């Protein structure tokens, strides 16, 4: 030991000079430990036999213990007793300590009496010193030193809260959380108790834990993140393996963990043998994905290929509703002229949905193309056409040509007398071309273009639009009225585009008397339609008048009046007739009745064409007598279908 | 725990009971007199929040200390074994668990408050002086600024808790004066580093004290000794 002491003294002497200017209060301690450290370094490992501190630790912040190695070189000196001394500053007695240390500076080997010996060399095991709670002060700096036969071997200073290393947790156990559907993996929950020494309940120390686990035959432990709670789930353990689990704890905010707990062995329940190995799993997912891609690719090839046959095979065209003779594209394109033409050809149109509107009536006109139309054919057709058509058409199907407007029965007229007259007249002036559908106001074309209808109608609709369409689409008027109830069929739209359907005439005004004033509109087509209309009129006229339930519209009367169908009326010379023909007042009727051959002129445009008038009497086949007076509205029957009144109804209505 | 010799059993019992109460941990006084749930919840929230803050405070100080040690002092014995003492050592502090458990909650709260007040000034100067350090790393500077804020927040929290737990308590204005500013500005680099080291170590220690006391109080007051 003499050698050590000499070296120590030399070192102290040398270092003390360096620290003369420093404010270190305990330079002796400092230099001593420094020299010791240098000595240690030079001496290398502890095999040289110098006892040194291995660790000092406090498990619960209430006690602490220090351990050292006891390797003394035997033979070099007599085996001395190793002693541990400690000193602690007493807070308020800091100055005392300071002064003590300062005095000790002068005599580095004079340890003051404040150095106390270890109170317990036994409790913590061999080569240890245990400080129980009465000797332990937290937040107080301690210095301990090892002495061997009086000579300081090592010195160490610390504060108790810095050396906290809790005991390991106890009572580890685990429970099964769940097993995966594949039966390969399982989750468990590991629980433990805090070390009994740590007073976590009163909050004196707060611990956090770290769990580690591994398979039994593995060497590397898997670590989990530190947790504050005393239980933690472990996921995805394989069922056919055995695991080891261990937990350790440390004081929160500290770095050093305590020792690990005992190892917990986790043996998971074995599943049945059908458990597949992961290696043998069929890559269902990939297969599905690729399959979908392949199918999609094939589908695209098929769809976009030029091979129509294949296309037809795999993707047969969806049958679309076909109207004989009508190309649906036409309807979409909205070329009303053409559609009207086509519709005119079809004479089986059935506007059923107009059945409800008793006041809706429409006159059906034959709207065959003038070019190809012949008197005979029309007449024949008209004659052959039974009343079914007319009945179906919600009214007398006005096969006659010449009437190009739909009109409403008197009922309507009375209703809309006041309100619509003004509206109609002003709006009537608009050319029907507004939407191209003006012609078809009464046509179901209109119906088809219901949404568009109001636009045109907005201009011209208020007042009823009366269209008389050739046979076809009955609901000329009904459609009209249907879409816009307020469209009193008092208005006759000008047959704009359709040459065939010229029986529309624009109603310029509706007189209170019940007469419709037609405005001079397009007369281009008036003639053409007229011709057909007229032709039909005649035939229809005769036919209708005879039968019961024959509906007689003004147009019918009109038809009857002109006895001579005039196909040549295609010219524009008689446009007016179309417009005004539809509305036939009593006067006009009678007038027309007089001149049978002058259909065209019958309702002269100059005449104030009256509005709807009720059919008063069915006169001779020559014509109808229209009652200028308004008929009672209440009688709905009167308007059973497009306003055509049967003889019976007439009788009822007649005052 | 002495039982006075009393002839009357009743008075003996009374004394025993009173002694037991005295021997129990002090300050088992219920804070919420009528046991109102909202009051208890509020107290719990207050303490939980304060503990979180003090924990963060301690984390900041620990990290700051470690960073400083790593960069400047390297754990040299020159510094590690030097105990210059902390300016807050003069404040009466329980030094172990038993003492802490025997201290009244009010006193503990006041102590915490005093420590925090004592650190107001040093932390303020620490921020400005750290900037003057050679190659001051941002980690230390940012943490210094953060700690200064945290100190203030904790003071507010403590005042709130005190007003809730001890409504009628007189205000606490005791704190230790810090006079270590000159040491932080010394020309001698080693001396200056030593001063810094000491200050940061004291801060770490005091933050641990505050954290511990608050946790103790939390379990005692808000959780009824059953954390």
UniProtKB/TrEMBL annotation, chain A:
One of its GO terms (cellular component) is external side of plasma membrane. InterPro entries: FN3_dom (IPR003961), FN3_sf (IPR036116), GHBP (IPR025871), Ig-like_fold (IPR013783), Long_hematopoietin_rcpt_CS (IPR003528). Residues 447-461 have a biased composition (Polar residues). Residues 1-18 form the signal peptide. The keyword Glycoprotein applies. It comes from the Eukaryota. Residues 87-114 form a coiled coil. It is found in: Cell membrane; Secreted. GO terms for molecular function: growth hormone receptor activity. It is a single-pass type I membrane protein. GO terms for biological process: endocytosis; growth hormone receptor signaling pathway. Belongs to the type I cytokine receptor family. Type 1 subfamily. On growth hormone (GH) binding, forms homodimers and binds JAK2 via a box 1-containing domain. This is Growth hormone receptor. It comes from Dipodomys ordii (Ord's kangaroo rat).
From TrEMBL, chain B:
This is Prolactin. One of its GO terms (cellular component) is extracellular space. One of its GO terms (biological process) is response to nutrient levels. Zn(2+) binds at residues 55, 211. The keyword Protein biosynthesis does not apply. Keywords: Disulfide bond, Hormone, Lactation, Metal-binding, Secreted, Signal, Zinc. GO terms for molecular function: hormone activity; metal ion binding; prolactin receptor binding. Belongs to the somatotropin/prolactin family. Pfam families: Hormone_1. Prolactin acts primarily on the mammary gland by promoting lactation. CDD domains: prolactin_like (cd10288). It is found in: Secreted. The lineage of its organism: Eukaryota, Metazoa, Chordata, Craniata, Vertebrata. Coiled coil: none annotated. Residues 1-28 form the signal peptide. SUPFAM superfamilies: 4-helical cytokines.
